[in-house]
Amino acid sequence: MLAHPRWYAALAVDVVALTVWGAVTGYLVHRLPAARLDHDTWLTRPRSWERDGRTYRRLLRVRRWQRRLPEAGRVFGGGIDKRRLGGGGDAMLEAYAVETRRAELVHWLGLCLIPVFVLWNPPGLVAAMVAYGLAANVPCLVSLRSNRLRLERVLAGRRRRASA
């Protein structure tokens, strides 16, 4: 229960920290050139257990709930709204894949902040911040990865057909 004044002060610091961290990381990742995000890294590469996103669609039923997630792709000028594809051409699909990697990086960075809350929060509030951090980032990561992996499968199929 939030009865002790220390909890209120810690919660105020938490809100400020989350807001500043989210804005700074969002802006910095937004500023990354597309060339830095047009390929997978150790963080974004597909894992075999994801099965091209089918794990997310079948096990977690991501398509049922992903439309309810917030979309912040256009917060900074030049960003892309990831709710809709702007077309079905390869260039647009590749740009969409870049933006999903960009958003994925922002959400991974959001998760990186969680251990910092141990520094000033009482244990109960640490648990609440961990729960919040996971709830705010993991569903977005699942949705982004599901969409991008499905998209990569489509692009790979098009490349195979074009080279045949």
List the helices and strands and how they pair.
Elements: H1 5-30, H2 54-58, H3 62-65, H4 90-112, H5 123-163
Helix pairs in contact: 1-4, 4-5
Describe this structure in words.
This protein is mainly α and 164 residues long. It has one domain. Helices cover 60% and strands 0% of the residues. It has helices at residues 5-30, 54-58, 62-65, 90-112, 123-163. The radius of gyration is 18 Å and the shape is elongated. 21% of the residues are buried.
Short description:
With 164 residues, the protein is an all-alpha fold.
Number of domains: 1
Radius of gyration: 18 Å
Biggest β-sheet: count, sense, barrel? none
If you average the pLDDT, what whole number results? 89
Instruction: Give the CA-CA distance, first to last residue.
Output: 64 Å
Strand content: under 5%
Report the principal-axis shape.
Answer: elongated
Which structural class best describes the helix and strand composition?
A: mainly alpha
Tell me the total number of β-strands: 0
* Fraction of helical residues: 55-70%
Number of helices: 5
